[in-house]
Specification:
Layout: H1 3-9, H2 14-17, H3 20-25, H4 31-44, H5 49-73, H6 77-84, H7 88-121, H8 125-146, H9 148-172, H10 177-182, H11 191-204, H12 207-221, H13 243-275, H14 285-296, H15 298-331, H16 337-354, H17 358-384, H18 387-390, H19 397-423
Helix pairs in contact: 4-11, 4-13, 4-17, 5-11, 5-12, 5-13, 5-17, 6-15, 7-8, 7-15, 7-16, 7-17, 8-9, 8-15, 8-16, 9-13, 9-15, 11-17, 11-19, 12-15, 12-17, 14-15, 17-19
Amino acid sequence: MTTTETRMTRPPRVAWLLGPALVAGVAYLDPGNVASNMTAGARYGYLLVWVVVIGNAMAWLIQYLSAKLGVVTGESLPEVLGRRIRNRWGRRAYWLQAELVAMATDIAEVIGGAVALNLLFGVPLLWGGLITGAVSLALLVVQSTRGAKPFEFVIMGLLIIIAIGFAVGVFVGPPDGGSVLAGLVPRFTDSGSVLLTASILGATVMPHAIYAHSALARDRFAPRGSAHLVQGDGSLREGGVSVTRILRATKWDVTIALAVAGSVNLAILLLAAANLPGVAGTDSLEGAHAAIAAGLGPAIATLFAVGLLASGLASTSVGAYAGAEIMQGLLRVRIPLIARRLITLVPALAILGVGFDPTLALVLSQVVLSFGIPFALVPLVVLTAQRRTLGEHRNRVLTTALGAVAAAFLITLNALLLWLVATGA
């Protein structure tokens, strides 16, 4: 066998199997995260540090289960549910709530990109939203024409920019260590802290990221058109890599992605908690940017705005990808990418056009996402626990129990939030 043939038959290194989680992980660093974490830190200091930590831990488990479903079945979560939900109207109702969640995601991401362009270049918000949408369309074209790996490289490049842009300020204006430790104790102070907790969790455990990750894993390891996903020896036809090896690499992929996303989210909250409490106007992204410039210098403020721009561009691409997958999997309808991108831009552009407060729109959009979490999370936990769905790769009892606890916690939090709103508390 020649050297070339040996290289072609050699299984890929673990590093080459990484990528889908890093792309899905961008959803955890979208402008909604920035708005929620920045507002939480500026308004409540270190109080909600525990929410970011717990949310990231739950996100690890959830994203791994999503990727595992895509790897083992060769289908995304929307595709599996599209087959399992036999009632046509039930399937349409499920699609409607998932589509609304995807639209809420898009609102946050497009608005975030528009705000960043306004901060950096003075571009009017409406035009900034159009530019953000156009760039996201270009990134989606890369994914659809060049395949999964080039798309992953582009998104990971933006992820590096996001991490640098948001994390540098923490080193310039470091937080108080004792206060950070105190913030790890779970507690609330008022209904506003509950609202922000729901917002942070909605921005961390994002429903569209659950749908997207299963599809990203499918596209990478079980591309459409494969005659069979798994051979008799349990290996994938693509490259002859075993499912077990891919799942092992996926754990590393998810760990790296969530370590980056969690660290950056925590850095955003700590940056605000250490430098912005009591500063007027810090309840908006524009005000926070101005306060950072005044307190830490224009260079740090510019990096913050660059990170926000990269966040909007990368996350809106992943959000649009998830939205297309939701429609195709549940309704079995595939519309042209450009048409869908233009349709989903309308709500965000309308909000920008009427002059609605962008930061408030971002925070509220994350609350909408929080209410959509159970509809994605409960089916995911149930499906991945079933032998008929994942065979020998189904969840262990402890994994299923942890997934059930996460779902129960999120559902309880949402119920509490509804009660607070209904009673005017």
